Amino acid sequence: MNGSRTVAWSERSAVLFDLDGVLTPTAEVHMAAWAEMFGAYLAGVDTGRPGFEGADTSPYTDADYFAHVDGKPRYEGVADLLAARGITLPAGSPEDPPDAETVCGLGNRKNDAFTTVLERDGVRPYPGSVALLDHLRDLGVPLAVVSSSANAPAVLAAAGLTDRFVTVVNGRVAAALGLPGKPAPDTFLHAATACGAAPAEAVVVEDAVSGVRAGAAGAFGLVVGVDRGAGEDALRAAGADLVVADLGDLA
After folding, report:
1. Is 227 tagged catalytic?
2. Nearest alpha-carbon partner for 159 in 10, 22, 9
3. Which of 18, 186, 207, 246 is catalytic?
4. What is the pLDDT of residues 203-242, one digit of tens each?
């Protein structure tokens, strides 16, 4: 059913939202940050240096993003793009400074670029998602964000949504608490507890197959899939009880 079913929100004790692709189109910010980081790095590569003679330093494009970066952990995306360009760098460590010429250093440089792009350009939440948030606020239903992104608090602030949520369980929180990420249900279960809700009384809202699987694994009362490209069939197969193209359909 594609948006024609009304959810009895007033009967729910909490609603737990994923962030990227559910509340905000954050992928656009990530794409811009990758482009800025790799664009500057490739332009500065000296192909006369030993080991860099065969490097492809042609301008970074969106095709590079989709072929080598999209959907991968940050450092893995850096390594894959560099390999495709014939560039080999030391792996380094996550503690490397952003100016280090290592895989992790470039990954950290991209994270800085993400913050810069977010502060400069902002991010607009999906209007339909805001309509649902407004409706749930009026009903007094506790809300939470559950995101694997360490940047979730910054994204929420840029989108003007910070004050909507009882708790934000992001990647840093999960790591600090030793909670496994999606498709394990643990981060959603932690958020439900913070909202004072039993899983059977709470709703999970996700656009990713792994997130829908997490909601189903946690035995939540309702799992709503938002189809931003994964496909209704895939979301239903993962455990979504209801799939919509836009959350405004449920406001």
Report:
1. no
2. 22
3. 18
4. 999 998 889 999 999 999 999 999 988 899 999 999 999 9
